[in-house]
Amino acid sequence: MENSSLVAVSLLDNFSNRLANYFKSIGYKKGDSVALLLENRPEYLGIWLGLSKIGVIAALINTNLVSDSLVHSIFASKNKGLIFGSSFSEIIRQISEEIRTINLYEFKDDDNIQKLYNARAIDLKQKLQESLCIVPPELSETETQDSLLYIYTSGTTGLPKAAIIRHSRYMLASGALFYLTGLNRETDILYNALPLYHSAGGMLAAGVSLLFGTPVVLKRKFSASNFWMDCEKYNCTVAIYIGEICRYLLAAHKPDMKLNHKVKKVCGNGLKPQIWQQFKNTFGIEEIYEFYGATEGNAQMVNIDGRVGAVGFVPVLGRWIMGPIIIQCDENTGEPIRTKGGLCKRCKVGEPGLLVGKINQKQLIKAFVGYADSQATKTKILQNILVEGDAYFNTGDILVEDELGYLYFRDRTGDTFRWKGENVATCEVEAIISNFTGYNDAIVYGVEVPGSDGKAGMAAIVDPEDKLNIKELAQGLKSKLPSYAVPVFVRVVKSVPLTGTFKLKKVGLQKEGFNVHKIEDGSLYVLYAKNSEYQPLTSNIYSDIVNGEMRL
Ligand SMILES: *[C@@H]1O[C@H](CO)[C@@H](O)[C@H](O)[C@H]1NC(C)=O
Ligand SMILES: *[C@@H]1O[C@H](CO)[C@@H](O)[C@H](O)[C@H]1NC(C)=O
């Protein structure tokens, strides 16, 4: 089948050696970094593997990015070069002026391509064919503490940041998946339809094949209608998910469909308690391993015994060795609550609070290495939590613990939200709206939509003089933002409430959401997926959305 490929390790090794030798020959050296913009394919792994052999760090770029967001990511880690697939050439052309200082390497990602699209780029495939040297390069004195990859995350605030993934971190993460889920390299085959630029697909799933030899079937792009057919065809026994995938699979399932796949285990992040059992029953899954952990964080957990809805387990007696704890916080802003003495308090059983992970740079599992930008690293560290002088990684997530020590995810605080499996940084969207409208005030936040995971983006735009052209706004946002970041709802307001901090204003707006019965002034719009235009949000459309008859 054309869209999936079985990763063949020795071919991959030769490929990566050629790539390493080529980049070495043109002067790349340890500590340099190269951005990689390519769809899922075996060569994706070969490219970063090759770069790592000469100590060069690959920055894995989200393939949905366009325009300013793409430029931002390319510069967020100091990349000397950019490797991109030919299918991205139009997107690269649009930013050519901004990235003129960066060396371009075009990778022909389709056999029918004769000529390069980009006149300035070097033909990477051709260079690799010319470079017959498959002898491994002399490995640079790489150590486990050296950086291997940059994987972008939004953290909880600010623009996307390049999180540093060290070799040790990569090994730990894929090792955790391999051992905790009891994978067997002789009998198991893992199905991976998650993007390789995210940590679940690119670190956990890809790592079990690279480091532990479990075959992985790599899909170009997730497809709900092909998912189980692929699993059947390739004899997969395990699949990796994000919560959104589980929902799409359930939505695409018809009762008369015959399923003959052999998948008995799934592992991933974000499967909601409401659909957990239904997912198991519908698809005949025996074991679900739900895990929790930010790409860059130190508060990882896995729910290894299938407790419905839990993201992990911290044994009551093991608390002093395990990193993550839940502390009391302001539920609206996620700010930790400090006692008179200045410290924080742990939550009781059943009391939701902020999950934080104790930082201990000497222990791999508790280390927080941070981002390529050290200023951004500081904003994620909380100090003086339980004792004077301690330091914790702030996950920005609200969790709650039960009496047995299982933890459950509640909400994400801060200025980012998740939609369609991707993180959206509200400040990035706000900047683009303000720039487009020319007004100062636009507030972007996420709102819950029944039956959807994550939060849909909503923008409150201040328009005292009725100048906003909603049609142009849709076009403008579409050209500047990846589709998942374009606000699904727009609310036009005459002014923003003046009281309270910026965060509290957001909370107020967020509580009203897109509820036409609470906001009756006719100022609400919804983005129609079909024609990418904003339409007035009527109470009929509102009901369709809430009842799941209209998908966003
Ligand atoms: C799947 O397993 C069957 C039966 O063992 C085998 O005949 C088939 O070739 C396998 N498919 C693949 C793609 O390996
Ligand atoms: C705002 O628009 C100007 C002019 O079009 C552009 O130079 C600038 O980069 C834009 N800023 C953002 C944040 O998009």
End-to-end distance? 30 Å
CATH class of the largest domain: Alpha Beta
Helix content: 25-40%
| Strand line-up in the sheet with most strands | 1-10-9-11-12-13-14
Largest β-sheet summary: 7 strands, mixed
User: Got a strand count?
Assistant: 27
Question: What is the residue-mean pLDDT, rounded to a whole number?
Answer: 89
Shape: globular
What does this structure look like?
By secondary structure, the chain is α/β, with parallel strands linked by helices. The protein has four domains: 142 residues, Rossmann fold (3-Layer(aba) Sandwich), CATH 3.40.50.980; 131 residues, Rossmann fold; 103 residues, Luciferase, Domain 3 (Luciferase, domain 3), CATH 2.30.38; 130 residues, GMP Synthetase, Chain A, domain 3 (2-Layer Sandwich). 28% of the residues lie in helices and 24% in strands. The protein has 15 helices and 27 strands. It has a seven-stranded mixed sheet with strand order 1-10-9-11-12-13-14. Strand 23 and strand 24 form a beta hairpin. It starts with a strand and ends in a 6-residue tail after the last helix. The chain binds 2-acetamido-2-deoxy-beta-D-glucopyranose (NAG) (2 copies). One 2-acetamido-2-deoxy-beta-D-glucopyranose (NAG) binds next to loops. It is found in: Cell membrane; Peroxisome membrane. Its EC number is 6.2.1.3.
